[in-house]
Amino acid sequence: MFRDLNINNDRPVYLQIKDYIKELIIKGILQKDVKLPSTRELGEILNVSRNTIILAYEYLEDEGFIRIVKGRGAFVSDIKIKPQDNFNLSWDEKINDYARFAERLDIIKNEIKWEKGMISFKSISPDSSLFDMDEFKKAFLNRISMEGDKILNYGYAQGYKPLIEYLLKYMENKGVDVEGKEILITNGFTEGFDIVVSAITNKGDKIICENPTHNTAIKIMKLHELDIHGVEMDDDGMNINKLEEKLYKEEFKFVYIVPSYHNPTGIVTSPEKRIEIFNACRQRGVPLIEDGFNEELRYSGSHIAPIISLNGKGNGVIYLGSFSKILFPGMRIGWILADKDLISVLESIKRSRNIHTSFLDQAILYEYLKGGNFEKYLKRARKEYREKFEIAYKAAKELIPCRDIKGEGGLHIFVELRDINARDVLFECCKNGVIFTPGDIFYTDGKGKNTFRLGFSRVSKDEIIKGFKVIGDVVRKMEG
Amino acid sequence: MFRDLNINNDRPVYLQIKDYIKELIIKGILQKDVKLPSTRELGEILNVSRNTIILAYEYLEDEGFIRIVKGRGAFVSDIKIKPQDNFNLSWDEKINDYARFAERLDIIKNEIKWEKGMISFKSISPDSSLFDMDEFKKAFLNRISMEGDKILNYGYAQGYKPLIEYLLKYMENKGVDVEGKEILITNGFTEGFDIVVSAITNKGDKIICENPTHNTAIKIMKLHELDIHGVEMDDDGMNINKLEEKLYKEEFKFVYIVPSYHNPTGIVTSPEKRIEIFNACRQRGVPLIEDGFNEELRYSGSHIAPIISLNGKGNGVIYLGSFSKILFPGMRIGWILADKDLISVLESIKRSRNIHTSFLDQAILYEYLKGGNFEKYLKRARKEYREKFEIAYKAAKELIPCRDIKGEGGLHIFVELRDINARDVLFECCKNGVIFTPGDIFYTDGKGKNTFRLGFSRVSKDEIIKGFKVIGDVVRKMEG
Q: Where does the HTH gntR-type domain start and stop, copy by copy (chains A, B) (predicted)?
């Protein structure tokens, strides 16, 4: 039976031998008290050195699978796995409504999937080829040499102190007065938003957001069974009259907005509109949750400060930041900047959910940021995405018959068709190897059936044109 | 004003200059349309090269803070941060009961804190000096060279495929039949347990666990408002009669157990008891949640298979695994092994909470494991912890007057005093520079006031003796 072992190059040979014998014992092929071949014998059978076998046996003994008796040899231990009658359940009946709802709202599972050769405009994640691997490696090696033992052991729920300090300074540089405020590091925006919603809402509470808005935010709010009120968008952001009207009529737990390169419309809320929204919330005492989504990607024009910077020492705005949308999303690092006492409560929730965000990742990111690499990366990324945006916007205007195209930069544009269902268009495009994200998933009220989002960050310039042509042809045909 | 800039070695100089000027603009010290000094002038003022200033201005323009007019110079842009009336809220009134409860259950916030010079037996986290940094670095560099662009971009909610495959094989090697089962990667045990509880329980549901048990599990179950029924422990695990009695009297949503080096008692549930517990759950159709906590740390005797290995192709056991308790806790990687369809639902919940666990960390861990480093590490760690355990157990027996000391290995022992309150002992010990974890926090019914846990993994052998002496003296004095 030992001859059946196929040794490969994936793992040290002695460990492959150890695992193989373990398997034979676990499966009951080698039973209790059976004597294993001598190390010399097995070495010959497997054509490896005797030392390799000695090492394998040592590990087997260490893991409790064999015992080695001096002068007599190696014997299989008493591994008590006596298979019992199988215990089977119908999990279908055990899974609760919340879990089923999470499954139903999971668009990744329910939308058309990318297949090889397709041009996909679904993604708005960054183009990894812009990442600077050398600087990333350096950041890792520096940090691990300095304090590898610390960052690989348990850390603190609030986050890695140097990163928190860096981000406080970073937010100050956006014009925020951080006095009386604190930062909690989260696993990206998603966790940050979920924690905030968990802390300040109860089932059935009314909240306001833009309509359409970020689908993940809608999903989280639905999972918390909130009563979502969408306010329609003008070209410069949320319609202020509708917002004020709503705020004055009913009680809301918070207003959630994405002021920069809004997902999905790409609209940048104007500085004037930011002030109006801020004051509307202030006057009604309704917390404002500001999603800092992609604001770093500003391509042109003057810097526009986040809404939280309007609030001086005030505590009514919660800012959710994330690099993970544009830089290293695989690491999942975001942050919440808010009132100190609130952050302290959110920290306890964070701890109850997953103790803390990876300290390794936080430490690498800190080292990377500190060295100025983020600025350098952004310079490259802005240039690249600006070019792509300009090509995409122009091409969409030319190639796709529609009522309106929105977008001012960022990583996507948003198309409003005349009176054609975007899912029908998607169905036809898919046959021709092009997919995108239907807009209805971003709406709070079932509208937007004639809209879709085109993410261009990971599509080459040529394929942008090629893909848009396909979409345009389908739309033209359907318009008849 | 430019002379006030203090240049340090932390960041590239041009970025420090950029940040400084940004700050002056943000604060309104440099106002709209103000002309900045020429690059030559500022270079002289700051005593840096003109090129450094050119670069700083380039970044300032790129970020939208200044505009550079050819032949005329650099001018401050219109940064519209018009401070508004402060928006202040009383967050105290906005924070809900759930969040307050999370805060109240947050032992880190409510227990005595370590201060410099103290001997702390609170921690049961691994001794970082046993980590193999060189192999860890290699694993990072290998993976990042192979697929850095992939693992730093968005991944999949279920986890990093090669790690999942590795863990399936790993569980097979513990005797588990993985057919019909799947793995979900989580941010450690804590997230895994929270997700499972979220998916299969509703407020008020009854569940069974050992009494005492892992405090984090109690916290999570309390936050889900479950009705927790503790079953007392015998020396070989849960009292089976009491378990069966409970199971036959009422409906329970699940039974949660920690069969190896049980937290806090250190008890290893015997193979026979494992079979009895499994069959009791099977007969009543109650899912069994098995916490694989520290089972890798077995010091001596035959390998004891996890309970899930008794179940063949059955699906009634959910296994929660985690390396993060013994290896690299800072990375927060655990897994759930369970029925395939159940995992698919849990995956959707995971996605709704934080998209996925860091792909960087998963990829490094995979590379590290694949190379056989975990086995090598365990060999070292087992040896070290066995020695410490033996010293600690013996020293506690000798030095601390008590009714019973439990523990069979792992990273901690558990002391039951005669009739003395452990918190009183802690209070006195703390004055003498020794702290530990009072046992009451592990009990489901307010008992255990005369118990405490002594974690020894991060305390030197000398300090174990020294610390136990202090505890023993305090106890002796209180016993009078």
A: 11-79
Decide if B116 touches A, using CB distance below 8 A: no
For residues A118 and A135, state if they share a domain: no
Q: Do B200 and A96 touch (CB under 8 A)?
A: yes
Please report, for the domain that includes residue B48, its CATH number. 1.10.10.10
Q: What is the pLDDT of residue B80?
A: 67
Residues A252 and A357 in one domain: yes
Query: How large is the average pLDDT for residues A426-440?
Result: 97
**How does A114-143 read in b/e, with b if 16+ C-beta sit within 10 Å?**
eeeebbbbbbbbbbbebbbeebbbbbbbbb
pLDDT average, residue stretch A219-245: 97
Q: What is the pLDDT of residues A371-402, one digit of tens each?
A: 999 999 999 999 999 999 999 999 999 999 99
Number of CB atoms found within 10 A of residue A37's CB: 15
- Inside any domain, residue B289: yes
Residue ranges for chain B with pLDDT beneath 70: 80, 300
**A contact residues 35-54, partner B, Cβ 8 Å cutoff:** none
Residue A312 falls inside a structural domain: yes
pLDDT for res A80: 67
**Rounded distance between C-alpha atoms, residue A306 and residue A296, angstroms:** 11
**What are A68-95's pLDDT values in tens digits?**
999 999 999 988 678 889 999 999 999 9
Residues paired with A186 in a beta bridge: A334
Residue B116 region, left (φ>0) first, then alpha (ψ -120 to 50), else beta?
beta
Are residues B313 and B334 located together in one domain of the fold? yes
Interface test with B, best of A54, A131, A153 (most B CBs within 10 A): A153
CB contact under 8 A, B103 and A133: no
- Mutation target for A interface from B9, B77, B89, B136: give the one with most A CBs within 10 A: B89
**Does residue B172 belong to the interface with chain A, where contact is any CB pair within 8 Å?**
yes
Closest-CA distance of chain A to residue B223, Å: 9
